[in-house]
Amino acid sequence: xxxxxxxxxxxxxxxxxxxxxxxxxxxxxxxxxxxxxxxxxxxxxxxxxxxxxxxxxxxxxxxxxxxxxxxxxxxxxxxxxxxxxxxxxxxxxxxxxxxxxxxxxxxxxxxxxxxxxxxxxxxxxxxxxxxxxxxxxxxxxxxxxxxxxxxxxxxxxxxxxxxxxxxxxxxxxxxxxxxxxxxxxxxxxxxxxxxxxxxxxxxxxxxxxxxxxxxxxxxxxxxxxxxxxxxxxxxxxxxxxxxxxxxxxxxxxxxxxxxxxxxxxxxxxxxxxxxxxxxxxxxxxxxxxxxxxxxxxxxxxxxxxxxxxxxxxxxxxxxxxxxxxxxxxxxxxxxxxxxxxxxxxxxxxxxxxxxxxxxxxxxxxxxxxxxxxxxxxxxxxxxxxxxxxxxxxxxxxxxxxxxxxx
Length: 406
Ligand code: C2E
Ligand code: MG
Ligand code: MG
Description:
- The protein is built from 19 helices and 14 strands.
- It has about 400 residues and is α/β, with parallel strands linked by helices.
- About 35% of the residues are buried.
- One magnesium ion binds near residues 308 and 365.
């Protein structure tokens, strides 16, 4: 939390709920204001804009939807994040809340950890200025939705359906050992073929799954699928193959990633060292104590840990000492012009040296040309991944490549 504690406005017509939320949030070090009705909430915001609002949906007089619509419809208050609270569990209540422009929705009775994580994450997004882009413009109920809102909502609905109907698949991209030129591992990449539309990039839909709270079940499905696949290869002609899986920070914080992985490994009989999790620097910086503890447990289990997109996310290197890391993956941004841009070349060399001096394996991603490969070989990079060798492939096509490597 920043040195100046954030001020949260709690709006609920039930004094007991207000008291409970005040106690929970003050315990986390936040300052609280409270309002017992929608009207009172609007007055309070006009007088002293809070950093975030917790807003009950069902209140006599002006309800939470109306309060949210008004605040989001006014440029002066549209940037204040809102978490809607409701005892209604129906998804229609949730959708109506989000439709007004509220950023989050929590069901009552409120679960303590969920409450403080959602509050913390939203405050963090707001501090980074990321919310403005996500905040719909004027409230839809008043002015109609703009094209961007409609497309987003359409995508969200399609994704919810995709989860229900299991429309996802996993492709695998080979990683090649530079010294031998042979496939040494794979990266699992999630794919979604949207019906009547075509493939949608995970760079687009993964962040939406995260914001909908759906990345935890989908991420679990990915790990499940990958482990079953490793087990199948292992018992057939192909033999043991190491596979890395991208893991979102939400899976570490909201889900029970460790228990899920332990269960899947036990069920499939896959050796833990055949599985690697790829995390971005940004996701490591969330809730660091919890993250360090989780990664330590994974490491103790024998699962490998890789830092994805290394070099773009965080300016402090101190965390490299604190996390049990096995691999650094140099971000594609440095590789793209590594042979023509001396600064990218210098950064790439430095990352390779840094990794080796810390006894870490280093992988370059996005390698597309022989010249890039030659540079990386000369610089001592351990593994490469990229279109030069292979695009991510469906299992059937990949099988041939894997058999050839033997
Ligand atoms: P990432 O983990 O950094 O994955 C590497 C991305 O670079 C992949 O994009 C891959 O297809 C692409 N790539 C590989 N070689 C080349 C190349 O030579 N040139 C270029 N231009 N691109 C190359 P993809 O599959 O679209 O995935 C994008 C991102 O989505 C991933 O970046 C990862 O952050 C996320 N993602 C993918 N699958 C999952 C998943 O199962 N769970 C989570 N949480 N995130 C995922
Ligand atoms: Mg990755
Ligand atoms: Mg990457």
